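Hi,

I'm pasting everything inline rather than attaching a file, because the server keeps stripping attachments. The sequence lines come first, and each chain or strand is labelled.
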Amino acid sequence: MTGPRDGGVLMEPFVPSDANPFDAAAAAHLLRRAAFGPAAPDELQRIAESGPAEAAKSIVRAPADRALEELDAMFDAIASADSIESLRSWWLLRMLRTKAPFREKLALFFHGHFATAHRKVQSARAMRAQAELFIEHGGGGFVLLTKQIVRDAAMLVFLDGAKSAKGRPNENLARELMELFTLGRGNYHEADIREAARALTGWRVDGPSAHFHAPSFDAGEKQIFGRRGNFNDNDVAELCVAQPACAKFVARKLLVFYVMPEPQAPFVDAFAKTLADEGFVLSRALELLFQSNGFYAAEARKCNIKSPVEFAVGLLRSLGGRVSGAALARAVAEMGQNLFDPPSVKGWDGGRAWIHPATWLARTNFAFEALGRGGPLEREFDAEEFVASDRRNANSADRALELLLQNGVAPDVREPIRRLEAAGLGGARAMLHAVVCLPEYHLN
Amino acid sequence: MFNRHAVVSLVFSLWFVSAAAHGQNSTASRPAPLERYLPKETIACVDVPRPGELLHSAASGALFSNLQQLPEYKKAMKEGEGLKLLAGLAAFRVAAGVDFMDAIDKVSGRGFVAALLPPGEKQGWFRFPEVLMIARGDGHDSIINIRNSLATFAGLRADGEWVADKVKIVPQVFQKLGAVEIVKSDKTGCFAVAGDVTVITSSLPLMLETLSRIEKGGESLADSIHFAPAAFLLEGSDAFAWLDVDKYAADVNDEFKKKERKLEPAAALLFGGIQQSLVDSKWLAASLHFTDRALSMRVLTSALPGIARETFLPEIVSTANVHVPRYAGSLTMRRDINAFWKDHEGLVAGELDAEFAKFNSTAGTIFGVKRMDEDVFPKLSPIAQFVFARQTFGELAAAPKIKLPAIAMVLQARGADAKENIKIGDGFRRAFQTAVALSAADAAQKGRPALGLNEESVGRVKLTYATFPEPTENEGEAIYYNFSPAFFSYGKHIAIASTRELAKDLIATLDASKPDASKPDASKPDASKPDASKPDASKPDASKPYASSALDGLDAAGRDISEMLAQNADAIIANEVLEKGKDKKTAERELRTFVELLSLISNVKFEITAAADGFDGALEIEWNSAPTAAGGPASRPARVDR
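And the predicted assembly:
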């Protein structure tokens, strides 16, 4: 997928025109990328009427949803059981219920970026602390976040930082910090890794939290990226982020997550400049991205395959109704994204890797259960009532398409759905299921 | 010379009096049991001898009285489904002209039976059986009036609108058999009233056959060789159910008996052959019996599998007193491990033999003996008791957020030789210490708090226990602070407990229940006191050791369990919210209702005994007392034991 060539134009504010209006389709595009999709038809209308700048602002700057504190308190009550299954339920229910989905979506990005896995960490409380770090601070400064992640208990266990000590530094954390978290391959030397590993010593993990153990810390002088000093973990984080390669590296990753699977160099460069100009404060940089030409270009629409979480949470948010958190977590895992257990330190590959016969079957089965009542998802949902809620269209097929795809389908795709209705097969649930099984529904 | 006339008069008088006395009890004057009207091919039946009386006593009994006091019940009766129920009952009275309970009495006051019969058509592996219902009531006319009223009532739609064309007000007569009118519903069912007997069937041929049997008699279920052995349960019961397993498999559910009956050792050891018995039985029967304070249920199976017969019918042994403070329940299991072990080569699949052999020598090493099957199992009594109790958490600086009950397993050494018992106890102690050490090593490797071993003396008993280190700020409420595993052996008793507190309570309880020769036996009534109550021989005093032939026994204290649930309310509600996606208010309301209902129950007791030809399960649920309505039900006859 190629992107627009003129980097300078890409990050300029998008100005709606007749050829490229900021309509319901554009609003839905914004909501799908910045959040998990429209939660209700009126939300879509409100966003469309705001215009791109106000819309981006309202989504990014939505305050933390205090109503989620009740859900957090629920998890606190059982936190001592240290159940990873309950943790998955907790986070997915947060994503479903939140009125500030941008924060959860950005946390999901960091969950795959600063990837750790429960199968090694073996502490649901530590994994929760990390998730909360991403939710609370993901939109803040990337430098601060990186500083906190190198002393995060789950990360220290996962990348053996908890075993690293003066005289026998473990290079795992330092290597992944540079290769996967901040700079990418080719932008550091092996010597930088060795010296950074020395600076990252001194941390020990005690249950869900980490503490500094001075005797294990190598306080000697180190040389990293050509600079000398008695560096510690904070310094290493700052040094990494200060490298010119970091902005491009992080910008590319954010563009892949939020915009297109293969962003071209001009777009990456332009966004990297924005990121650096905004002091690596991600919420500000992303707010500008969400109102940019590059974001609303035709090439950027419907080009990303939804991850299982995006698909499942997006569908349920648009449908409403009760669902079992535990069953949802299992369903998402079956689709290939087991939260808190990515396949490797690189996180999930994403893109086309999300779709193969087994996961496609899991998606369509999930959709069928989500559109019904009871079942393994313990759903409370009325498909007939949902379809009837759309007053703009006369027939069920068009209503289903409007509600789920905001009419973003070509006529040759719309026709089979209409024929399904005309054949009188299955009712509202079948209609909705047919729409959700369209490939278009699985594109962001 | 005797007076011939006087003799003849005396003989006639005697004959007349005895005939009159016999006539009161003769079957000729007593109505036939309803099973006499069921065909011999019956697959299953449910019999309620006195439905009206049962409903009346339930409605005026202690349980319902307590239920009505619950806040959730009062709320439910003022809204939603409760209100609909009350409205329905009121509408019924208007339509039928009698209260619902009185209608039940009139139609079925002298018995009700429902039966499943072989299906007429085959439709795949599950074939819907025919249905037959028979009720005996007050009299023909009152039943017909109620029938007609109900038909009218059924014509109303749920929202109260009258739909006159949906059901005919007076059901159309479909066919006549003698004086009996058979009416047919819109679907397939048939309805008829013959004298004081109401018959409802799922097909006309079945109706005709049943009416003929009612009028003329003939072979019936009561004559079936599979029914007769269970029929005694019907006497004195408030409800009775019976199932012909072979017929069910043959006529209704092809899949039922097809499952491979491979013996699984773990299941066999755990269930003692009960699951096998359920599959092998020719018939199953159950009875229910209600009193003001309790509900009793019995279930009989008709097969005793070989494994149970050979392995799990041990000698009668005494149980230990495990009624510790904050007692929540106990489970008693009798499994002759020694016999099972000896026979295992014949009972388990070949590939498990190597595993058993490995266990034999490995566990023997830990126990400090050569072989488990020679040096340990033969010396253990075939009884294991598991006791559950609430914890006080008094020994901890902070109680865990999730509060689990403490649990202990109590075994007994078989012999009377004290030295031998000490040796067995020491073996178990070594195994306990090894297990704790292994767990601590594993925890240390994973960076988790590790258990540390300790010992103390509790009276003359050496208690070995393990505790986690004092919690840090982060760890204080962790779930593992529910556990401080402990072990002791006291006389012939060997106990492993999940907490030190429970182990100490057990030692004190066992100590208190030891017979003291210097004191009079409190279990025997004092003859010098004329009003001394005699111990109830049918109900062992659970606070004292008693001998029982029960294979398995379960005892649970409703109030303590409901208190444990209440202690963990936050965690349970959180689980409901996170696992099932309920909102907090719904989860809170549901838990509150459940806890309130559970607190109505004072005790649940379940025992399984094995007889020559099957298992006999007895369940008793006692609820808390409350004042009953004036003129409450008379006491019921005691259940008839086998």
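The first helix of chain B runs from residue 4 to 25.

If the labels don't parse on your end, tell me and I'll reformat.
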